[in-house]
Structure to design on (220 residues):
């Protein structure tokens, strides 16, 4: 119920006092809260700020004795970067971390730690760890083998290739052997396989096959 003094002020065109500027309205805490973060004013609800009970913002809007002055409009003054405050406020609103593509996660993490918002801190750290893992992953290596075979062995060799080996190229190197009245053509068959490196380098299997390749190359 409006007091006579408030009704007269509103009829005269004056704005009603802000209930959410951190003061009381109607004997209780107002719903809306104004925050002046590094010169940028944010307007949100007390319910949003109190979503994380242990956070700086929750303690601030619950009236705990924190060192925070107010500006001329009654908004809480917070000397932090407003660029990274938007994602933090939105996280408190809907529980999701949404960042512009050019926004550094490190900056948001720094602010989340300052405001002591535990769930957001964990989400950002998980994202950063995933990115670090993808960057440090070693790209797969291709190992090639060169096999020498005769014409009558070629079909069987190609059809029985397994374990990830793939046929790449066939080179006819002429006739090196003569059995009776027929010449047997000789071929070089090039095959490849994609190997993912472990933290300690190639596996023992790949090392063994590499040595085999080197031995064949020496013979040829």
């Amino acid at each position: 119920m409006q007091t006579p003094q408030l009704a007269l002020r509103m009829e005269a065109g004056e704005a009603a006092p802000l209930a959410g500027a951190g003061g009381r309205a109607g004997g209780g805490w107002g719903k809306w809260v104004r925050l002046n973060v590094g010169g940028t004013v944010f307007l949100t609800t007390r319910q949003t700020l109190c979503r994380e009970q242990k956070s700086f913002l929750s303690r601030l809007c619950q009236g705990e004795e924190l060192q925070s002055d107010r500006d001329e409009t009654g908004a809480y003054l917070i000397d932090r970067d407003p660029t990274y405050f938007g994602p933090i406020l939105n996280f408190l609103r809907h529980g999701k971390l949404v960042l512009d593509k050019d926004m550094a996660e490190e900056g948001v993490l720094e602010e989340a730690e300052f405001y002591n918002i535990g769930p957001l801190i964990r989400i950002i750290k998980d994202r950063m760890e995933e990115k670090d893992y993808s960057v440090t992953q070693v790209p797969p290596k291709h190992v090639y083998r060169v096999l020498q075979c005769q014409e009558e062995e070629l079909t069987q060799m190609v059809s029985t290739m397994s374990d990830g080996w793939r046929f790449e190229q066939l080179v006819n190197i002429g006739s090196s052997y003569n059995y009776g009245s027929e010449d047997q053509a000789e071929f070089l068959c090039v095959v490849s396989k994609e190997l993912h490196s472990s933290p300690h380098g190639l596996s023992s299997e790949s090392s063994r096959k590499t040595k085999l390749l080197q031995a064949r190359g020496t013979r040829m």
Q: What stands out?
A: Confidence is low (pLDDT under 50) at residues 1-28, 199-207, 212-220. Strands lie at 24-25, 28-29, 32-37, 40-45, 76-78, 141-150, 166-179, 182-195. Residues 32-136 form a domain with the Potassium Channel Kv1.1; Chain A fold (CATH 3.30.710.10).
